[in-house]
Amino acid sequence: MTDNTDVPVTILGLGLMGQALAGAFLKAGHVTTVWNRTPSKAGKLVAEGARLAPTVGDALKAGPLVIVCVTDYRAVHELLDGSDAELDGRTLINLTSGSSAQAREAARWAGQRGARYLDGAIMAVPPAIGTADAVILHSGPRADFETHKPALDALGTVTYLGADHGLASLYDVAGLAMMWSVLNAWLQGTALLRTAGVDAATYAPFAQRIAATVAEWLPGYAEQIDSGSFPAEVSALETDARAMAHLIEESEAVGVNAELPKLIKAMADRSIAAGHGGEQYPVLIEEFGRP
Ligand code: NAP
Description:
Blueprint: E1 9-12, H1 16-27, E2 32-35, H2 43-47, E3 51-52, H3 56-61, E4 65-68, H4 73-80, H5 84-87, E5 91-94, H6 100-112, E6 116-123, E7 135-139, H7 142-152, E8 157-162, H8 167-194, H9 200-227, H10 237-253, H11 259-276, H12 285-288
Parallel strand pairs: 1-2, 1-4, 2-3, 4-5, 5-6, 7-8
Antiparallel strand pairs: 6-7
The chain binds NADP nicotinamide-adenine-dinucleotide phosphate.
């Protein structure tokens, strides 16, 4: 998978994800040094050929490329605290989940210690690591990403987003917003249909088709958002708002939770009150874009 297996790799953090990352580097042939607060979690990796460093400092000294993947940014700072000298000259790739502000702050923190820094977000579960299904997002200086991409390729489909260190975290949460919105909409419909004896499995293929159709609209709607112009080519927001009222009424009539459609209807009503009723649905970006 990689043509750059001569680069030694250090992994800090051997939770479920860290172990998967280290395993993928080992499998690709990298000399792999690992460290974990609880060293016993390194047992299987050591049996597969990993080197267990006794301290974080020793792990950092093992090579130029250091991946950290622990619970949160507080843990990242706790474990690296006191290793300033060893960080100097290293590239630190932080695959720990966190916020864009934490990523940007960590980049500054690493830079003050002479380390190069890339932030990352893993859009996959541990068993997928090492396969193309594992999408891993990176942000930070492009040159640093390009330098280490041949090694990172061992982890899955690695993607570069841009120089702003916060981008990987932002894409991560944007993806979560998408995932839960689709699931919540499906659950709303499933709850409605179950009142008429239709089971979830019967409704699922229908819901799948609707979700796929709506997904097709995104690039065109994105053009409207980027241009700031929302002509009602398909339907006007006030037409959508009437359908929302219908969804709320139906939910309440059959005894199903109506909180979610009410929330969306309230946003549409505000937008209509601001004079956007004759424009197309993506004009709601103005409601989503304010606190
Ligand atoms: P996990 O299994 O709970 O492991 C947590 C790791 O963090 C362990 O190595 C733990 O060390 C270490 N840790 C926590 N606090 C620490 C501290 N103060 N100092 C040093 N080490 C500390 O979690 P995980 O599933 O590996 O997840 C790691 C990161 O990957 C998280 O940010 C998570 O959001 C992200 N992620 C996970 C998944 C997934 O499906 N698992 C998917 C995408 C992203 P000990 O072993 O000593 O406790």
